[in-house]
Amino acid sequence: xxYLLNMYALVALFGMIAVLxxxxxxxxxxxxxxxxxNLIFLFVFSQKLFAFSLAYxxxxxAAYVGLCYAKRGRKAAFLALIALNVIGVAALRLFGMGxxxxxxxxxxxxxxxxxxxxxxxxxxxxxxxxxxDGRAPLLDYANYLLFIPTFTSGPILKFRDFIADSKKPYTxxxxxxxxxxxxxxxGLFKKVVLVASMTVVFKSVLEQDLDxxxxxxxxxxxxxxxxxxxxxxxxxxxxxxxxxxxxxxENFKQPFLSPTLTQYWRNWHASLGDWFRxxxxxxxxxxxxxxxxxxxxxxxxxxxxxxxxxxxxxxxxWGVYHGALIGLESLLQQSxxxxxxxxxxxFYARCAITQAIVLLAIIVYSGNSDTVLRxxxxxxxx
Length: 382
Hints:
The structure is a single chain. Helix 4 (74-96) packs antiparallel against helix 5. The chain is mainly α. The two termini are 39 Å apart. The protein has 3 domains: 2-166, no CATH class; 174-243; 255-379, no CATH class. It has helices at 7-22, 29-45, 47-69, 74-96, 113-130, 138-146, 159-166, 174-206, 212-243, 261-267, 270-284, 291-309, 313-331, 344-361, 369-379.
């Protein structure tokens, strides 16, 4: 994630945008030059990651094209390709955790792969449901997987939208450039100024003896910290994407004004929630004839999102916690609250309850079991 905060990376990105603006007379400039930039950036960043990414793109493109043209065994091939990608990513994560060891393994291989595999699967869905008419050139497919502004932390691009953007000529003007620069500056302010200073405060309080007040402060403070951290990165990615001629989806849509947990997950890290709903729900859609079925899928989706964040019992419990509550909302037909149809007091009360529910488990995002247990212990100490 932090590579976009590197001064050389920022200069390189703005340099790429300048090249695109100077070569707008050449129609394929956005497709060809952006791919060249993506590859050069990865090569300079890590030659091992560069080689791994080339192999990963080539293998998955061959699978994607094969699925586009397959006539027999399409469903089996579709599911097998998804399973192979998931197993591959899971295996690399286990290597990174030290569960397995091999002299050829390097932790750099997992850099960006957690997001890239979601894009690979989205392309496989497109190939399976659209068929040969959904085939995209290797150049655009590689750009989709390796697009530098969103490579490590999203937002998660949809295959059909990115390919549609690739077909459009580069037409970024002064208005788009200004909006993009402002978005990047906003993101850098969040990441460099706010997150850095807030992290110092968080660590300072964490070193003290924790009581209910301090633990509650740390949970609220950490909630704000990760919001500025992740939304800041999304701002940077969206800004650079816009200046490079691509529309990057919004990741945060006023999540603090979400009156239900279901709506919260459509507004917080929206592209991730949308991805899991679109792809997991699609598999089970024919079987979802009851509210119990929908509740079960909600639980499954949130458990998978938890495990996607990390292979640990903390993230598993986090997924069960959110999934069970979202499932309960579905069973009670309380998944949505329309602001215009209720009183302001009721709407904001529901928003406050939703934020309290999220806050109770937010510290799990720290990824450190010792920190999580210590804060919870302090929260309930007398």
